[in-house]
Amino acid sequence: MRVRKLVGAMALAAVASGGPSAYASSHREAPFITKLPKVDATDFYMFRSYEANRAGFVTLIADFQPFQEPFGGPNYFMMDPDALYEIHIDNTGDAQEDLTFQFRFNNNLKDFALPIGPSGAQQNVAIPLINKGPISAPGSMPGLQNLNVEETYSLKVVRGNRRTGNAQDVADVNGGSTTFRKPVDNIGQKSIPDYAAYANAHIYSVSIPGCTTDAATQGKVFVGQRKEPFAIAVGPIFDLVNADPAIITDASKRNAGTNDLANKNITTLALEVPISCLTAAADKPIIGGWISASVRQAQVINPEATYARPARVGGAWTQVSRLGMPLVNEVVIGIKDKDRFNTSEPKNDAQFAAYVTNPTLPALLEALFGPALKAPTVFPRADLVAVFLTGVEGVNKPMGGATAEIQRLNTSIAPKPKGSQNNLGAAACFVNGALTPGNTGCDTAGFPNGRRPGDDVVDIALRVSMGYLLNSDTAAPSRGVPLHDGVLQDDAQFYDTFPYLTTPLPGATTP
Amino acid sequence: MTKQRLWLCALAVGALLTQACRDSKPPPSPPPGNMPDSGTPGTTEVEFTSFTRDLILNQTADNNLPTSTEDKNFVDNMSADAFPPAFFQ
User: Taking 80 as the threshold, does the pLDDT of residue A299 lie above it?
Assistant: First the structure.
C-alpha cells in the first residue's frame, strides 16, 4: 500500500459535525470511542463536598481511560495532549453550559540518556523507561529529577458557550502558576515507595476567576491516577446477566458477587468549587452537570513519527465522548446511536427520548429471567424521564428545566458525612412512587440528586428501570424486587477528603 | 394607509429582502489550487486529502465548530506524496 494511501486511510476527518453512555458506567460503551481510550469518559460524580468544613463546596469528578491495568508500563496512562477534557455546568436549567472547566495536558520529555560503550568511545543513548530511579513528592528531593516524562496541565473556566465564551485561567494560590503537575501513575513500590504522599502533594488550592475572593472561596484541583471507583460484575452482566436470579433478587446478597473492576485503576480529574460559583443565584440552587472530551477533527499519521509529532492534528474541537448520568449510553442507548450520543449535546436530546420513554432493558431482563422479573407495562415511562431527563420533582428538578440527559444536583440539600450515607441514594425517599422524605433511610443527598462515589448506581438503576418509582403492582409487577448485580458499592470504599477516590493500585509491590 | 402607500411599502420590503438575500449568499469563489473550502455544503465530490489538509492548516482554532462530513461525497485522488515530511515539521 502506498504510504500516502495508508496515511489517508488513517486520517480521522470523518467525525460528525457537532451542533453535537450502561454497565461499567460508561467504559468503552460506544463503538467509536473504543478507538480513542485516552478520551473515553467513564464516570462523572457531582456532590456537595462531605469533607469536614467543606460543605460550602461541590466536588466534580470526571474519570477517563477505562480498564487500566496497574502494570501497564512503560508509558502507563498519560492524558492526551491533543485533546480537550471538559466539565460542563448548567445553572439556568436549559441544558446548555453556563460554566465549563477545561483541562489541557502537556508532556515534557527530559530524554534521559546513559553513556554506553567502552571508555573513550561512549555514546549517550536515551533510556526506554519513564523513570530512572525512585520518585518522591515535590519538595522532598531526591525524586522528581528521576522522572523522564513530566506531565502537566492547565485549567480554564469558561463562562457562556464552551467555544465562544470568556475563558480565564485558574491559578495556584501558592505562587500564581497556571500550570499544574500531574503525578506519574503508580508505577510500583520500588519507584514510588509512598505513592499516597506523592500524589497528595499534587492537590492544589486554586483561585478560580469570578469565584475566589478570599481563602474561604479557594477551590481545589487534583488530576491523577486513582483506584477505579466503580464497582460492578461487568462480565456477567454483559453475558446476558449470567447470574443466579435467586441471588440477584435477594437483598441480603448485594455483595455476593465479584467486582470485575477491583484490580483496575482510572485517571481522575477532580475539582472542588464553591457552591456560589456554580449557581446562578441563591434562589436557583439546582445545577446540571456533564463531562465531555473532544479531539481535533482531523488527524494525519506521521509516517516518520517523532516523539513530539507522531501525527499532525487540526481543525475544530470535535466532541467524541459525553457522560452525565451513569449507565445511559451503555445500557439505554441502542448500538446504532451510541456514537451519535457521544457527539451530541444535552440540548438536543429529544432525538434519544424513545430510549428512555420506551426502554429495552426491562424487557431484556424479563426475557432473560421470565416470571422472576416482569417489566413495567406503563408507557411512556415518566418515572425514568424524571430520574434521567428532567430531575425529580421536589428534589432536583429545576423550575422550567429542559428535558436532557445530565446530572442534576440540588446544592441546597446538605451533604451527609461518610458513614451515614445510604448507598441506595435517594431511592429510600420514595414510597409507592411518592416522595416521602421522612421514610427510614431517606438520603436525598445521594443519587439521583447528583452522584457520590459511594452511591450504588447499578443497583439503583436496575431497580428504577424495573419500576421501583411506579405506584402499582399492575404497572410494575417487579417494582418491589430488590434487584442488584451482586457487587456492593458504598461510602466505606472512599476517603472522606478531597479527592475522595483512593490511591491507585501499584504496578508492582515490593516483596 | 392608502392602497398606493401599501403598494410602495410592499415594494420597499421586497427590495430589502432581495438585497438581504444577495448579501447573505455571495457568489462562490473557486478554491485556491486544489484546496476546496471544507465548509462548503452541497458539494457532490470533495477530495479527502485536501479536505483534511484544509482542516489542519486553516480551521484550527479553539472557537471553531466542526465541519459536517455527512453532506460530502469524499473522493481520494491525490498523489502518494500529498503529505510530505515537511507537513509534519
Answer: yes
- Of the candidates A79, A72, A49, the residue with the CA atom closest to the CA atom of residue A61: A49
* Cβ <8 Å between B55 and A4: no
Cα-Cα end-to-end distance for chain B: 70
With 50 as the cut, is the pLDDT of residue B16 above it? Answer: no
pLDDT digits (tens, 9 = 90+) for A42-65: 999 999 999 999 999 999 999 999
Q: What Cα–Cα distance (Å) separates residue B2 from each residue in A324, B9, B12, B15?
A: 60, 11, 15, 20
Rounded Cα distance, A78 and A225, in Å: 9
pLDDT one-digit tens code per residue, A10-29: 343 333 333 333 355 788 88
Residue bearing cell 523513570: A131
The pTM of the full predicted model, rounded to 2 decimals, is 0.89
Question: What SS3 state is found at A508?
Answer: coil
Which residue's C-alpha cell is 405506584? A471
Phi, psi torsion values for A122, nearest 5 degrees: -75, 150
B85 touches chain A (CB under 8 A): yes
**Closest residue on chain B to A2 (Cα):** B80
Q: Helix H segments across A177-221?
A: 195-200
Query: Does the pLDDT value for residue A474 go beyond 70?
Result: yes
> Which three cell numbers, joined as nine digits, stand for A487?
457487587
Beta carbons of B52 and A11 less than 8 Å apart: yes
Q: What is the DSSP letter of A451?
A: B
| H or E, element range at A277 | helix A275-278
**pLDDT, tens digit, 9 for 90 and up, residues B75-87:** 988 888 889 999 9
